[in-house]
Task: structure prediction
Amino acid sequence: MARIWVRWSRDSWEGDLVLKTQQIIGILLVNNGGFRFLLGAVYGHNDRKRRESLWEDIARLSQIADSQHLPLLIIGDFNALLYRHEKVGGRPVQDSILYDFQRCLLISGLRGLERAGHIWTWHNKASKGRVACQLDRALGNSEWFRYYPNAVAEGLAAETSDHSPIRVGLLERATWKARPFRYNNSWYLSADYEEVVARGLLDSREGTAQFRMVHKLKQVKKGIRDWVKRRPRSSLVDKEAELREVQEALQADILCGELAAREKNLSAEVNSLRLQEEISAAQRAKCSWLKDGDRCTKFFYDVIRTRQHRNSIPRLLDGEGKLVGDPVEIQREAVRFYRDLYHQEDYPTTFPPLIPKRLVTQHGNRRLLAPIRMEEIEDIVMKADPNRAPGPDGFSSGFFRRHWGALKLPVLEAVQEFFVSGKLLKELNHTFLTLVPKKEGATSLADFRPIACCNYLYKIITHLMCRRMEGIMQGLVSRNQAAFIKGRSIAEHSLLAHEMVREFNKPGGMKACVKLDLRKAYDTVNRDFLCQLMLAMGFDERWVARVRECICSPTFSVLIQGTPYGFFSSSRGLRQGDPLSPYLFTLVMEYFTCLMDLAVHSRRMVPLFRLVHPVVSHLIYADDLLVLLRPSMGGMRALSDIMEEFGRFSGLKLNREKSRVYFSSSCPQKEERALVLGVEKGELPVKYLGVPLTVNYARDQDCQSLVEFTKKRVEGWQAAGLSFGGRIELLRSVIAGIAMFWLQSIQIPVATITKVESMCADFLWRGGIHAISWTQLCRPREEGGVGLRSLRAMKEAARVKMAWQFVSGGSLWADWMASRYLRRSNFWTIRIDGNFSVTFKAILKCRPVLQTAICRSMRDGSSTDLWLDPWLGNRSLLEYLGPLHDREASRGLKCSLIIRDGAWRPELYTFTAQLGEEIRTISIDTSQTRDTWNWAGHASSGGLGRFSFKSCYDLVRTRHDRIEDVDFIWGKGIARKLQLCSYRLMLGRLMTRDRLIRFGVPIPDSRCLLCSDEDESMAHLFLECPLAWHIWSEQCRRYLGGAGSVRDIRGILSWIRDRRGMDAGWARQARLRLSATVWHVWRERNRRLFEDLITPPIGIMHNIDFDVSVLTP
Result:
């Protein structure tokens, strides 16, 4: 009996069988209108081993679709899970079971359709011991989502079956109004663009400086709109086709000068159009991490489609809870919701006496009110990301950067006018609200985050205000807050939370941790309270008036599908997206700290560690609140009263549904205590600041969110659009970045690191043969790698960084840890105790490495232990003299004993003459306020410097021999694809036929594809093959002179290196020509293998010459 049935209406569709196996049927469907797509119907085996052939079949069907640029939809019962959270009940899912399906999607470039309806598509029908899974799903490729970006896989009622049917709804895109003007960063490449902008900027009107500036932008916008309508549009596809025709004609008549000149002109046009397309796509995709890869335009468009699909709102719940899909009803509901959200509630008009812990000094206020300088504005504009979304006027920072010469004086006048008058032009502070869903498939507006798109001129003003405030915030805001304050770290905040929660595992005493969630935090801030609080903190009235103008004068429109709707003002809230908002929100949260400190001081509340100083009763990171206390009934009531008072005055109300309280196992009456606070009781571990907050050390299963994050970044069709160089950049910038945050926040198990590195390696090689090992790739370029970082070495570097932060001191975490564990002991000599936390043990184990990388900068010696601190180079005095000089009576002595009036006292250190000489070489810096540790890094770094994770990683990583001539491969001015091809050749890792055979790949013919005489190997393909050697010898004869006698690549590199000193320009050209030759020989080999196309030697040399001419500056 057949396992899979596929039916379609012959009146509308014609179907051809493409693939048929026991687990999948692939059919090419064509409708009456000519639309074609591939359908894959799946019924996977229950047995994991037998399912392996299904993954191969899916990859094969995906290859068929990609080769013909067809949309592909695969739907059915896969009998497999992708993630752990896709199963509830029963035994936990093992990662090894998930791996096969995940790897299949990675290779195939598929991703799941958005789910709706019944998401648990299978269950065991049991009343007890119920198990449910998401086994049935629909997958699509990039072409599918290009045609149907809003497609949804809806799970229907199972009725009598244990499986729910899946119905794919295509949800055609609704018709919306035209989108507003958006400046395109690629316009500057057009010939007459500059003239259009210059005409608009010359226009002048009478009025205030802000009015004149806004009017200039309006004139430029009008001119650009007219110019875009009338300019001739060149199609990149047409130009590329024309270029191919010319190049084919040139192959038949390679010496034709007329064709060569036409090719050169067409190539310049095609390159210009490609660059315009790439710049435009990069601007819309907003992938700031992709800075130095190949052109990844396809990837950019995939990102754009993903973002458009994720941010689209095809359906929405209205105020009555009814699901609506009509565009008019959606925009009406969105405008109503946000008009009500930003409307002031009945907040108190009088406030209690506000007594902040710290005040702004007179010097701080003078800095705030200092005159604005052109250099400040210019620095802000030049450092801005040109791809950030613009405000309602449509002009991004890219426009201001491009035309800064003409704009800087009008901008300076407009900005200075605001700082003098304190008034903003209403039009300047209009804001678009773009709605970003917090979860997949959001239909309630409460599940969207409103991000404010402000005009860039307004953002220049608020960036200036932030820079002025930056200098005073550290002294103004308590150390309980870590967000947005320079010098404070989210990782240290996370480490401190872990240290405190660790005590929950110990017997005795009641302990509680309360994770508080604020409802719509930014959007509900009481502005009057904020301004009163700032005055109480000592801010000058003029500065507070400027802040009030910025936050109280905006008007709003809501963007739906990129189109603005509505126009309304507001009376409460801060805008997420306004540069000023984070600092202002931090000041509001400082009031919570004041209330908590008063409760602790009056003993209404007892903190978890009252004998460890500094006393920490709570931690705040933006709107993430964590309270740690002894949960007596009185303490819980006190916390409830604090939240009530804080919410009443600040406007920030507690979201009791999302807040949780976690108790230690020894705490009695947990439910009653939770009821006093009014929140539910939870169970640890829980996610805090993005990482798991655990009682014990983090286990592999606790770190699955890191594994799943990595999977989502590297799997599916979006990342499949990246070139090899682009995939390296993704791993370097995004994956390594989030992994580094995790490594600095908790101690990640080796098993988790192994999984993440394995996924990264699979992604880089697209699930195929790993031509170069991950370990090799994670070396610096000069040592034979590509500059990726090993997560294992990063873990060790993160530990050393923690140790450095600990000995440097000054942070809340470092001071608390020192008080908790060191007490009167010395960090450098304390022994590791079994009661120490995992983090502190890791820090202590790093002492030998840290000691080699730091040195003591002496001021007066009062805080430097004479015997135990390593102030003598990298050694302590005890290490220098040996254990015979260890005297209890000498313990506690400071170096100040042998320093007087900023100089050493030689009469007091008469141990040895050599020691005296070494001490005299240590300089004393009387300009410092105290003795400090300085970071020196690795011995090869050449002296003192500021600490950086890069230098710390360099300190702990495994070193390898430097590879000679590697700088020729990675030199500037060489395209990434050329660099990587030469790199793989230098390592001997190109997948020629002899290497494929060694890897067990069945090859029907092992002969060289260029000559068919000898077996294909790298040595043969690039040097011994008659065709390849003819190309090399011609290149050497015409361009490289005496290199023609050299018979290997490294020999040619050495010959170029020897001549580099005589003619640097020639050497640069030679290096480029060498890389281009390697690339085109390899490209010709692949064209013959995969496309059955043959280019004659003279044509290959012409292509090399062309690439060199294009890449030569």
User: Anything to note?
Assistant: The mean pLDDT is 87.
